[in-house]
Amino acid sequence: MSNGGSAIRGSRVGAGPMGEADRGFQAERVNLNYYCSNGHSTARAFAANVDPVEIPEQIDCPNCGLPSGQDKDNPPVIAKHEPYKTHLAYVKERRTEDEAKELLEEAVAAVRERRARLAESANN
């Protein structure tokens, strides 16, 4: 009895012979390495006909997310890590204490006026 082995088992439909030398036109490439401050190295390939100005000087490290540059000895560092700011922190950046007090007084007066109107209409 035959064990039913197949010569094409595990290959995809339309695949050529294994080790095919010519798999189509290979575009010329420029390989660049990027390095982050955590010591990670990332290789990126760019088309050789791309203008060097369009090749990024920095990319985000796929391992840790820090910026990566092309200079291994001097990788880029984050100047300052900004902590998460609340909505109130952003408001305090835009308003002075006097402006805040004035806005609060206007809001409280509007609420009191609305409550007075609702109470008056409920009594009638």
Keywords:
elongated, alpha+beta, 124 residues, Rubrerythrin, domain 2, 2 helices, four-stranded antiparallel β-sheet
Topology:
Layout: E1 29-36, E2 41-47, E3 58-60, E4 67-69, H1 87-94, H2 97-123
Antiparallel strand pairs: 1-2, 1-4, 3-4
Structural summary, described in words:
With 124 residues, the chain is of the alpha+beta class. Among the domains are: 29-69, Rubrerythrin, domain 2, CATH 2.20.28; 87-123. Helices cover 28% and strands 17% of the residues. It contains two helices and four strands. The chain has helices at residues 87-94, 97-123; strands at 29-36, 41-47, 58-60, 67-69. Strands 2-1-4-3 form a four-stranded antiparallel β-sheet, with no helix packed on it. A hairpin with a 6-residue loop joins strand 3 and strand 4. The radius of gyration is 33 Å and the shape is elongated. The termini are far apart. 4% of the residues are buried.
Taking the alpha carbons of the first and last residues, their distance comes to 100 Å
Write down the CATH class of the domain at 29-69.
Mainly Beta
User: What is the ordering of alpha helices and beta strands?
Assistant: EEEEHH
The coarse silhouette is: elongated
* SSE-based structural type: alpha+beta
Radius of gyration: 33 Å
Instruction: Count the DSSP helices.
Output: 2
Strand content: 15-25%
Low-confidence stretches: none
Largest sheet: 4 strands, antiparallel
What is the second-level CATH architecture of the domain at 29-69?
Answer: Single Sheet
Strand order of the largest sheet: 2-1-4-3
How much helicity do the residues have?
A: 25-40%
CATH-assigned fold name of the domain at 29-69: Rubrerythrin, domain 2
What's the number of extended β-strand segments?
4
Mean pLDDT: 84
